[in-house]
Design goal:
Blueprint lengths: L10 E7 L5 H8 L4 E7 L4 E3 L4 E3 L2 H8 L4 E2 L7 H10 L3 E5 L7 H4 L6 E5 L11 H7 L4 E8 L9 E8 L6 H24 L1
Parallel strand pairs: 1-2, 1-6, 2-5, 6-7
Antiparallel strand pairs: 3-4, 7-8, 8-9
Helix pairs in contact: 1-6
């Protein structure tokens, strides 16, 4: 049994993520006292560029640097994927920039919740491209939102938010980089309260 610094049992967590937005969030979760990341779930390695070099996702690359086990299912809803995750018996699952809808059987798995960090001031800009949508809409303010994952995309109860200014010269790249740092701060602030 893994224990936290105060002697209590550590929260067994699984992290779902693929893109670069999720990397600082994985780091924040992995560094959190009282939490043990049991595994990382990410998209499969894919050919990239003109030479089609098979490349891991940014999250997979970071998880390997952290010596964390990585699962890369083509479809997370397949029985073998569900079985592998169920066998880990996670207390908590945290998701950011993963890229697949999560089936009900996985949403019900962790006793302490299945949470998502989303780079918009939900319910504004729900969906798969919130950062470009924020820029295209001309928003001057945004946020990162921590929500409970439900079967409907980005529609779960809001746990916490962290404001994020949108600068006049922001691009999707610059705004995503700042949003990912804000998301890591939000997770560090809000997750201990959620778990308590």
């Amino acid at each position: 049994t893994v224990t936290a610094a105060d002697g209590s049992a550590a929260v067994r967590a699984v992290f779902f993520g693929s893109g670069s937005f999720a990397v600082p969030i994985l780091d924040a979760l992995a560094d959190m006292p009282g939490v043990r990341v049991e595994a990382v779930v990410s998209a499969p390695d894919r050919p990239v560029g003109r030479k089609a070099i098979v490349t891991p996702t940014p999250v997979t690359a970071r998880a390997r640097e952290l010596d964390l086990p990585v699962l890369q299912p083509v479809r997370v809803r397949r029985p073998e994927s569900v079985g592998a995750l169920a066998a880990m018996a996670p207390d908590l699952i945290v998701l950011a920039d993963y890229g697949q809808l999560i089936p009900r059987v996985l949403l019900d798995l962790p006793a302490r919740g299945f949470l998502n960090l989303h780079p918009s001031a939900l319910p504004r800009h729900r969906g798969a491209a919130p950062i470009p949508a924020t820029i295209l809409a001309g928003d001057t303010e945004s946020a990162v939102t921590l929500i409970v994952v439900t079967e409907e995309m980005d529609a779960g109860p809001i746990v916490a938010t962290q404001p994020l200014d949108v600068r006049p010269d922001d691009t999707a790249v610059t705004l995503e980089a700042r949003a990912s740092d804000v998301a890591a701060v939000l997770l560090r602030r809000a997750l201990p309260e959620w778990l308590a």
